[in-house]
Amino acid sequence: MKHKRVADVMTRDVVTVRTDTPFRAVARILAERNISGVPVLDTDGHLVGVVTETDLLGRQARAGGAPGPSLWQLLRRKGFARSTAARTAADLMSASVVTVGMGDRLTSAAATLARHGVKRAPVLDDDGTLRGIVSRKDLLSVYLRDDADLAAEIREEVLTRAMCVPGPDVTLEVRGGIITLRGKVERQSMIDIITALTEAVDGVVDVRNELVADFDDTKIPPPPPENVGILHRFTEH
Length: 237
Known about the structure:
By secondary structure, the protein is of the alpha/beta class. About 40% of the residues lie in helices and about 20% in strands. Pfam families: BON (PF04972), CBS (PF00571).
């Protein structure tokens, strides 16, 4: 089963600044590009931090600015350039950066962003080089898949290829990403496996499993360990 990876949905045209980029230049980039944060690279092009709107506004507030101004308001404020001219991205950035890998699954990347409470994250390749930016919106794009496309993948990859279930035995209904499975399979244990595999398909919102089984193999006691018989024969003598 093929899953989308971060590389499939990330933004590759990344706006960056250097560690020596002046405060005002960073603020102007964020304001003009309408972005809330920008990666900071060192002279070798390696990611060393991130500067956000919060970093900029917090610095200005500590310098005596009024609370709550926008970046554009700060840029137009008299004395802003003089008070911040000596500041650079290195002074402002957060060195602890939440990143994801190009090969990460979307579910894994989404969990990383949620766990750290960030809206977007730099994307690194296997060598640690910055390759893109991925946002929560990018990660949610997988749920925009067409229902017919979802049905085709579940039928082909889950029911036919993975579980070898004959087509007529199971019916598949997809509405808004919600999957309903009906029909009969050979063994009870197959039902949980089919459910798990279906839930793992990119774009599936929920799975409603109404399958029944010809045979309940979940209640069969496990066979005894191989050495039990040997131990029994040994103790008899």
